[in-house]
Amino acid sequence: MERLTKNRERVREVLFSSEHPLTAYDISKECPEMSLTTIYRALDYLVRKGQVKSFTFNQYTYFLPSERHEDFFLCTSCGKFFQLECLAGSYEQNLRERGMIPSDHLILITGLCNECNEKLRVRI
Ligand SMILES: [Zn+2]
Ligand SMILES: [Zn+2]
User: Fold this and answer.
1) How many CB atoms lie within 10 A of CB 10?
2) Looking at the domain that runs over 6-65, which CATH code has it been given?
3) CA 23 – ligand 2 centroid, Å
């Protein structure tokens, strides 16, 4: 395997040790020594190598390790991710019955987390 440069290695390490998807900006907070351009370049490389996957939501692109399968609840107020139990099995079963071959999925539910919901209720 091709050797990862120090920057790529560092970006990979930050992503793989995080429990939730990160934006390039999140990574830059962990790696203040790197410019955003360098981080984007490293991410681009890791995506091309298949080690990292990404998804875009509300103009933000999030990155996570390719090997990881997770579904999420994303709080649109505080931006926190919460892991969901994967319940996609019945969709996949249904697709297979229709002759399709599902290979991957991402379930993202958005809304207010309990803490933000609580704060909002106090204000009202
Ligand atoms: Zn929240
Ligand atoms: Zn799932």
Assistant:
1) 19
2) 1.10.10.10
3) 21
